[in-house]
Amino acid sequence: MSVESLPVLKPNDFASDQDVRWCPGCGDYAILAQMKKILPDLGVPRENIVFISGIGCSSRFPYYMNTYGMHSIHGRAPAVATGLKTVRPDLQVWVITGDGDGLSIGGNHLMHAIRRNMDLNIILFNNRIYGLTKGQYSPTSLLGHKTKSTPMGAIDNPLNPLSIVIGAEGTFVARTIDTNLKHMGAVLKRAAEHSGTSFVEVYQNCNVFNDGAWDYAKDRDTKEDTTLQLEHGKPMIFGKDRDKGIRLNGMDPEVVELGKGITEDDLLFHDERAPEPSLAYLLTRMRHQDGFPEPIGVFRAIEAPRYDELINDQIEQAKATKGPADLEKLFTSGDTWVVE
Question: Which residue of 97, 123, 204, 225 has the smallest Cβ count within 10 Å?
Answer without folding.
Answer: 225
